[in-house]
Write a structure and sequence with these properties.
By secondary structure, this protein is α/β, with parallel strands linked by helices. It has eleven helices and 16 strands.
Length: about 350
């Protein structure tokens, strides 16, 4: 159905879309290429939420040459008014003759309606080109827009024998740690437990080598009794901090933290701990689309047991620690967890294993 040329142009559109990774939340990443007489005459991508969409950027570059051209776009064009006007109206106005779309927009406001409007205007529409790549590119958006619950990734650095604690401060290499900072900039929030703050006093910011600033995510701290000190480094930018706690937290500490500008999410208790499922729902209501969990063994177990985890990223260092009292990446699971659709990548002498906690369609 699709030619090698079609695949080339859609691959180009997907590459363009990925340039905005971590910058479009809560919107999807979208890329667009306009082709006429086997030549690209316009291209663009969605740079950030609130800015013009990929299709509009590509149409602006193509100008009047867009008449009777073919548009390749990674996601179904929108047909509703949000922060920007509907893209389908501009596509119709530009007299595009054919639109090839990778995947439908899962947003119920759009899904299928954008395509229907294009077809009613006499535009040929084809779908499904490189759809697996397009779906994976926007896996965070796809989950959040249909469930209003954040996409959850567990990230951990570990030894060959599965230990996240060892004789030195860093288990993984410098390149792996830099990749983690890049990953942080792609998620709305980083989450740790109180023990990580008490032990390591981290900043939980995105520090990308060669760049002045990465996009710093929200810092979520699970602390059922608000025991971390207010002098902790995470409070350096307190307005980016979300404390997840319970009614067992002391009122005076609660008041102190909110006066500093941090937000507080209070859940019911589950075995004297924060209710992870309820926390994810509340974070979703706050507009947080993705959470990267960088907690310890027990936080990882709590998240996996709660069934809220979508994906895991495990950086494995070629070391064996062997000590029984060193914590493993997960401690306290009742049932085994299998990863699906796994991907293995070398990061110098480290190995990164990524996989999904449930089978993907």
């Amino acid at each position: 159905m699709f030619s090698s040329e079609d695949r080339k142009y859609m691959a180009k559109a997907l590459t363009l879309a990925s340039r905005a990774r971590g910058k479009t939340s809560p919107n999807p990443m979208v890329g667009c290429v306009i082709v006429k007489d086997n030549k690209i005459i316009g291209q663009g991508f969605h740079h950030a939420a609130g800015l013009s969409h990929a299709e509009i950027n590509a149409l602006n570059e193509a100008g009047d040459d867009a008449h009777e051209a073919t548009m390749f776009v990674t996601l179904e064009p929108c047909c509703h008014y949000g922060k920007t006007p509907p893209c389908v109206d501009e596509i119709i106005s530009a007299k595009i003759s054919k639109v090839i779309i990778s995947i439908y927009d899962p947003n119920p406001v759009v899904s299928g309606k954008g395509i229907e409007k294009l077809q009613k205007a006499g535009i040929i529409v084809e779908t499904g080109l490189l759809q697996d790549r397009a779906a994976r590119l926007n896996e965070i958006y796809n989950k959040y827009i249909t469930t209003r619950i954040p996409f959850v990734l567990i990230k951990a650095g570990m030894s060959l024998d599965g230990k996240i604690q060892g004789p030195q401060q860093w288990i993984t290499n410098e390149k792996s740690r830099q990749l983690v900072h890049k990953m942080r900039s792609e998620y709305d929030a980083i989450l740790v437990g109180k023990q990580t703050v008490l032990n390591d006093n981290p900043y939980l910011t995105s520090r990308i080598k060669g760049k002045k600033n990465g996009k710093n995510p929200y810092r979520i701290i699970i602390d059922s009794r608000l025991q971390i000190p207010i002098e902790s480094n995470v409070f350096t930018d307190s307005e980016m901090v979300i404390m997840a706690t319970t009614n067992a937290a002391p009122a005076d500490k609660l008041s102190m933290i909110t006066k500093m500008g941090a937000r507080v999410v209070i859940t019911q208790t589950v075995d004297e701990r924060v209710d992870i499922v309820e926390l994810m729902k509340q974070l979703g209501q706050m507009g947080i689309t993705s959470v990267m969990v960088e907690g310890g063994a027990r936080i990882n177990a709590s998240f996996l047991s709660s069934g809220v985890v979508d994906k895991m990223a495990l950086f494995i260092s070629p070391q064996i620690f062997g000590k029984r009292d060193y914590l493993s990446v997960v401690e306290g699971l009742d049932t085994a967890i299998r990863l699906y659709d796994t991907c293995v990548k070398r990061v110098e002498n480290d190995v990164l294993v990524q996989g999904y906690v449930t089978k993907r369609d």
